[in-house]
Amino acid sequence: MVNLEWYRTFKEIYENGTLTKASIALYASQPGVSVHLNALEAYVGKKLFERTSRKMIPTEDGKFLYEYIIESLEKLEIAEQHFKKTTQEKNPSLNIGMCSEMFQLIIEPEIPKLDFDLVARFGAHTDLIKDLNNGILDLVITPKRQNEKKSLVEYTPFSKERIVLIAGNKTNITKIQKHIKSKNLRNLEDELLQNVWYSSSNEMEHFRRFWFENFNKKPAFKPNYILPNITSIIRCLNNGNGLALVPDFLCQEQILRNQITLVWEGKVKTENTLYFASRTDLKYKKELDTIKNIFTSKM
Question: Any transmembrane segments, and where (predicted)?
Answer without folding.
Answer: none
